[in-house]
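Could someone model nicotinamide-adenine-dinucleotide with this protein?
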Amino acid sequence: MNISIFGLGYVGCVATGCLAQQGHRVIGVDPQPTKVDFINRGQSTIIEEGIAEIMAAQLAAGRISATTSSAEAVLKTDVSFICVGTPPTAHGHLDLTAITKVAGEIGAALKQKTTRHVVAVRSTVLPGTREKVIEILAQASGKQAGIDFAVVSNPEFLREGTSVKDFIKPPYTLLGSDCDWATEAMKEVYKGIDAPVITTQPRVAELMKYVCNSFHALKIVFANEVGNICKQLNIDSHQLMDVFCQDTKLNISKAYLKPGFAYGGSCLPKDLKALRTIAHDHYLQTPVLEAIERSNEYQKDIVFKHILESGTMNIGFIGLAFKAGTDDLRDSPIIDVIERLLGKGFNVRIYDPHVHVSQLTGANRDYILKRIPFISRFLTDDLAKTIEGSELLVVVNRDAASEKALAGVGTKRIYDLTGVRSAAISGPNYSGIAW
Ligand SMILES: NC(=O)c1ccc[n+]([C@@H]2O[C@H](COP(=O)([O-])OP(=O)(O)OC[C@H]3O[C@@H](n4cnc5c(N)ncnc54)[C@H](O)[C@@H]3O)[C@@H](O)[C@H]2O)c1
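Reply:
Sure, complex below.
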């Protein structure tokens, strides 16, 4: 394919070399003549392992060139990648000056083009930026998005230092697209790359890079806090984290990574507190570990406020235990929410298929009798009555029978903390806690 790359910095230079290596003809564009000269001499504009050899080989093969002329690049190609910088402003917002400028230049060139064109936004940009790029392109070209041109969000996951390897073998190729022909063109661009292609809503693709990088940062500081504690306890932190990472069922896995309600139960709150306390005893600061509980409390506040502002006082809770499939009520997070609602005079009905006060035993029985005796007054074994007497149904835990019943609740409102939504449970009366 014929591809133009706007911006010949880290991302653009690696893309130029690596896409040429895949057999495409690539034209680089940059306002800095020195960078353009570098490419035209078969040299890299950056220092990265392997890139110098690739640029030299691809120039020799006649597959790369560069120019300062945006129009020339657009007219000679079918796909343009935007790889310009998106630095933060003094106030921390994104500076989109380069993106806006490049979109204007591509749009102006599109005016003269007779074939359709794909623009791939490779720069890291916040959700909504792609729509701005579409607006600018449409205005500058007088052409129509989805017909004459299309914009695909295609974030870059490379890391400096290993960027060539990351380009050739990324975790996946992400295409945020709402246009079939543009998606197909992008698949053609990446057909030599050994990675799955995932097509998503454009805004999902735009936010992805921020979520990934924030998670990576979280992993680093989490491991560092654990390491600091280990050092004080004369424990080899590397050995500990090696073993930690070998649990691919719960630790390095999808587990616990679906947005939803707060955690609770008899283990997580207690053990987190113990780890923080031991750190504190050794005069260590653990800001990330300390923030976990605050964040968890905030999730309960969100639910409380949603119900408070729902405009009804009749609330039915489906699920009470700290998670589905158990009758364990210890530190169940929804109990905090219910307590606050009762304090405000709400009428509450609670149904949980696994919680029957008469059958509770052991620590769980002690907990309910000593810590939350009032809750038993609002518990019922009758799901139908819970639904019938409530105007807002809060789904705390999922089970097959409740899901079936919820599909037939008609105009009653559903507030979902679990991801119970389906074709049958949806519509204007449905709302999810974080979706
Ligand atoms: N560097 C990384 O490791 C990395 C990884 C993934 C994503 N990203 C993202 O990719 C984007 C680019 O990052 P980078 O590190 O390559 O930036 P960079 O600053 O190294 O390069 C940007 C280039 O764009 C050029 N440019 C500016 N205006 C232009 C215009 N109108 N037309 C053509 N070129 C123009 C600049 O001259 C510069 O050469 C950013 O959004 C960044 O957040 C960077």
